[in-house]
Design goal:
three-stranded antiparallel sheet, alpha+beta, 13 helices, single chain, Beta-lactam-related, CubicO group peptidase, beta-lactamase class C family, Diverse_Enzym_Activities, Beta-lactamase, Beta-lactam/transpept-like, 18 strands, 411 residues
């Protein structure tokens, strides 16, 4: 099992150490001028850690520095893990991608689609086709998030208590039943909209496998991959390693501790969010990226076949469209131009249109607290970045990471 530290010198991995020092200097400026409290980045090549930087404070109030084993809320970086779980079941023949989800979740037997009216009195019509498993994996089901504040359906979610969190006491099954009662934003398959689709997918994993999502993850993914610090909520013995959560707003640009939201990660939640409920470390998540980069296998343990990983990380949007043309206008940490969507991952289709130095076929995602990762099969590269700042659109860190890391590739 790889240690927390560095495995090889940058030059041995085909990386320019001087350029990586520029990366470190750039991240230090974010911390030194107060935009970030602390951060961490791990750069790997061909399954070996070549660069690791930990800087600043994990908890400003406690004056506790970021360490190699700091635990972070990864929020939507949970989604690729849930997608891998679903595709593990798919490889077992448990479902087909075009199966209606109502086969296992009967609450979705008769979805309706919003066509007009306000949140209090929406006008809806029956869905033309059922929500299928493929729709959940690609965020084309017509579901949404209350925190988007773009569509009337977003407001409907908020009125039902679904914004950043969910109504108190609800478990995942109850959340899914509630979402099934709400109108879809569009006809299934017609558009892309970032949504609770992966949470519904997590519930599908539970029903099909007969296990709770945390049990499935622990038994089938985390234990085999040696992801010892990844879970739904941080256990008491790890609280001293947990990073604090901070936020900025237009009127308050300095990071302010968000205790009300942050404390939710200090215990197992009432609902197991396959879309955003996990905490993890940079080491653990890097091991997850290595499994993907290695075609579904790590250290002799195989979760998926190479062909399944390759299939998941292709653009599945109709006609090869990108998110800018097939998706709805949403706030985003990076550009949607030149980026498609696979089965649980954003996929770069055109680096020129994306205006970011990367490779075609690079796949990635990030989390609400500004965490991010990407895997570049063409370069054998994986990068995991951790911090705890909301919203994730506050600074263009994700594009800047690529801008500083790719020039370090010298072979």
């Amino acid at each position: 099992m790889a240690p927390f530290g560095i495995d090889v010198e940058p030059g041995e991995a085909g990386l320019n150490a001087a350029q990586l020092r520029r990366l470190d200097a750039h991240l230090r400026r974010y911390v030194d001028d107060g935009r970030l409290t602390g951060c961490q980045v791990m750069v790997s090549r061909h399954g070996k850690v070549a660069h690791l930087t930990s800087y600043g404070l994990a908890d400003k109030e406690a004056n506790r520095p970021v360490d190699v084993d700091t635990v972070w809320r990864i929020y939507s970086m949970t989604k690729p893990i849930t997608s891998v779980a679903a595709m593990m079941l798919w490889e077992e023949g448990a479902f087909e991608l075009l199966d209606p989800v109502s086969r296992w979740l009967p609450e979705f037997a008769a979805p309706r689609v919003y066509t007009g009216g306000n949140a209090a009195k929406p006008v809806t019509v029956p869905a033309i086709e059922p929500i299928r498993v493929w729709h959940l994996l690609t965020h084309t089901a017509g579901l949404t998030y209350g925190f988007h504040r773009v569509n009337v359906t977003d407001e409907i979610y908020r009125l039902r208590g679904f914004e950043v969190g969910v109504p108190e006491g609800m478990d995942l099954a109850a959340c899914v039943r509630a979402w099934a009662e709400l109108p879809l934003t569009f006809q299934p398959g017609a558009e892309w909209n970032y949504s609770v689709a992966t949470d519904v997918l997590g519930r599908l994993v539970e029903v099909i496998s007969g296990q709770s999502l945390d049990a499935f993850f622990a038994e089938r993914i985390f234990k085999p991959l040696g992801m010892t610090d990844t879970a739904f909520g941080c256990p008491p013995e790890q609280h001293a390693r947990m990073a604090a959560l901070y936020g900025v707003s237009p009127g308050r640009p300095a990071p302010v501790r968000i205790e009300a939201i942050g404390k939710a990660a200090l215990s197992r939640p009432s609902w197991l969010s396959g879309g955003g409920g996990l905490v993890s470390t940079v080491r653990d998540y890097t091991r997850f990226t290595w499994m993907l980069l290695n075609g579904g296998e790590l250290d002799g343990v195989r979760l998926l076949s190479p062909r399944t990983v390759a299939y998941m990380t292709r653009n599945h949007l109709p006609g090869g469209a990108d998110l800018a043309t097939f998706g709805r206008p949403l706030f985003a940490e990076t550009r949607f131009d030149g980026v498609g969507f696979g089965l649980g991952f954003g996929v770069v289709t055109d680096p020129v249109a994306h205006r970011t130095l990367t490779s075609p076929g690079e796949y990635h995602w990030g989390g609400m607290a500004s965490t991010a990762f990407w895997v570049d099969p063409a370069e054998g590269l994986s990068v995991v970045f951790m911090t705890q700042l909301m919203p994730s659109s506050a600074y263009p860190i994700r594009s800047q990471l690529r801008q500083l890391i790719y020039p370090a590739l010298i072979d």
